[in-house]
């Protein structure tokens, strides 16, 4: 059954499109910039998975929490992290969101409830149990969402966290972004093709699997899970089948992947294209509104790269700030 | 007002009083209440040693049993801390760090620095360590050195009931993750403990005994053993000063170096493994930052073996007062020119 587009106002739809377009432009631009050698370290791009971040985070407020993954730029943008400061962070500059100390894999802003991208696969699920516990103990209606890949879903931390959240009845949503690859290893090998959502039953957690390329499907499932959590109904597991448009990291030659896999997905099942087809066919938005957003986002990303390149390096005395130092 | 309490009761009292004072303090871990899910009363166990007994009665919403899932427990503490609680999570035995270390050293320890100083991670991990209880190789290790090695963590190693209460209070109020290492062989040791809450600041060593000839630096269970050695040496006319750093991170380098400067001789006693431990770290501190000494620095540790089970082997494993006294005497021997 096709997910519903009704009951979603035009502002929310425009916001969702802006989020997805911002993620796409941010990542495509990073892909080009990385190839010039301008960006240090490891970068893992989120392009192709935009509907998941937008569909889930669009229903959260700044008071809610998320914990993210290696592939965290999309979650950070969707949760409201400042795009200019994010780009500066990836360039390792003083104006970066984490003062240049975190980089791509550790982008975080607790002020908007973003508890960090994470360099450790499966690092996030235990953290949202703590954030959910805070909401439960202090009696707020906050929720906490962890994003995990199919790779991370095989970590003990993920399974321990499903159980703990269930035992403690926490307002937590475990979102699994199943892009079919744990780094280079196909999910057809590493979990025998079994849907991760089926694990929900084992822990007494409501679970469902949706098409992660379809913003409306993701949003509908997330709305049910978030609503249940806010109302004291405990945790949920939401598996989103999605597609990673680039390698595990930038520079990955993807020799493990059929050559037509990404081009086919881009042509036939792209989250932004699907979204546009749905909203224009139903008359909810017109294409002109979307092109205007495209233009504004393009300018924002251009500006973010220009400013990141021009920004100062971190001052050397900041090396030993914000940590207890002995010796 | 002070009265005599055990090391274990002193820790329990700090938890109870701090939870009473601050509603953001929560306690969770395996069996910390005990009795959940059965027809028996909650709080049936109060932790594997009964240390947290009575807390659930007072704070039923803030004392939570957990599954045996140390990674989830440590990560939940880190996540709760960054989102506004002051969790005190129990790692039942320090040896279990092997199944949860990531959440402590890659997550909690690094948040404040890695996220540009915006976050605070006010969590305490209470854990017990050390040999002497016949608990064998996987429940008896002394591993505070591993945590001490990690930037971003603070590490506390109390040796007396007074210090245990005051240091735990300071640890709970600290905005960084603190690993609070309780020696299981000290749980029954009694000492004077004030009734009211107080803090023993992190990073402040305690000169537990003054002496002019040799400085002995010791931690945890090694402190009372060093004191016994010092008493024996007093009869030989040797004045031993015993310095207990109390916390290994921050480390009160100034007090240690000032003592060694006065005595000119130093012996370090550590219950940890001999390689890459607090023992070698303290020796390095004195050797590289201390004064010109009158004798080589002594180091007393167990052998480089797992902790054995049989009582006679375990006693042979642990540094005792006799070995400490022998190491002190060695520093008093004439040195060849």
Compact summary:
The complex is a heterodimer of chains A (327) and B (337). By secondary structure, chain A is α/β, with parallel strands linked by helices.
Can you characterise this structure?
The complex is a heterodimer of chains A (327) and B (337). With 327 residues, chain A is of the alpha/beta class. Chain A has one domain: Rossmann fold (3-Layer(aba) Sandwich). Helix content of chain A is 44%, strand content 9%. Chain A has a five-stranded parallel sheet, sandwiched between helices. In chain A, strands 4-5 form a two-stranded antiparallel sheet. In chain A, α1 runs antiparallel to α11. Chain A is globular and about 50 Å long. The mean pLDDT of chain A is 96. By secondary structure, chain B is an alpha/beta fold. Chain B has two domains: 193 residues, Rossmann fold (3-Layer(aba) Sandwich), CATH 3.40.50.970; 127 residues, Rossmann fold. In chain B, the strands form three sheets. In chain B, strands 3-2-4-5-7-6-12 form a seven-stranded mixed sheet, sandwiched between helices. Chain B has a five-stranded mixed sheet with strand order 9-11-10-13-14, sandwiched between helices. The longest helix of chain B has 15 residues. Chain B is globular. The interface between A and B is large, with 48 and 46 residues.
